[in-house]
Amino acid sequence: MITSLTDTERTTALPALGETGWRALPDRDAIRKIWKFRSFSEAWGFMSRVALAAEKADHHPEWLNIYNVVDVTLTTHACNGLSALDLALARKMDKLAGAASVQVDHSEPVACLCQIKHGEIKHGGA
Ligand SMILES: C[C@H](O)[C@H](O)[C@H]1CNC2=NC(N)=NC(=O)C2=N1
């Protein structure tokens, strides 16, 4: 049976993930990270590799892809909160993403390369 993380497990594990750009969601027991790749092809390649890892672990992200952006939320539906499976998948995704840039400020709009190129959003984020 999958159980959500204890407070001790959270204080032990989450700071290190925070260092790489994972942020707690304000309204869900979940963590979120926003990657910006150099192209759609790189973003999709990342998602393909993560998809294989997710299938192997039988643990899947909630994610949105907009062109070069992959906006990921991890939580465990079976326990409606963060579990050890989310920590493992977060670490795996960090490895698979390599040197892709990360938007660490989630209060900023998430701009994809199209919007920046077309001048819709001033490129201030990572
Ligand atoms: C039937 C299948 O094993 C379950 O639905 C798995 C699939 N992937 C999952 N992914 C996530 N994030 N949470 C789950 O509870 C979950 N359950």
UniProtKB/TrEMBL annotation:
A GO term, aspect molecular function: 4-alpha-hydroxytetrahydrobiopterin dehydratase activity
Keyword Lyase assigned: yes
GO process annotations (BP): tetrahydrobiopterin biosynthetic process
The UniProt record lists the keyword Cytoplasm: no
Signal peptide: none
Keywords tagged on the record: Lyase
Catalyzed reaction equations: (4aS,6R)-4a-hydroxy-L-erythro-5,6,7,8-tetrahydrobiopterin = (6R)-L-erythro-6,7-dihydrobiopterin + H2O
Enzyme Commission number(s) from the entry: 4.2.1.96
UniProt xrefs under HAMAP family: Pterin_4_alpha (MF_00434)
Name of the protein in its database record: Putative pterin-4-alpha-carbinolamine dehydratase
Organism: Gemmobacter aquatilis
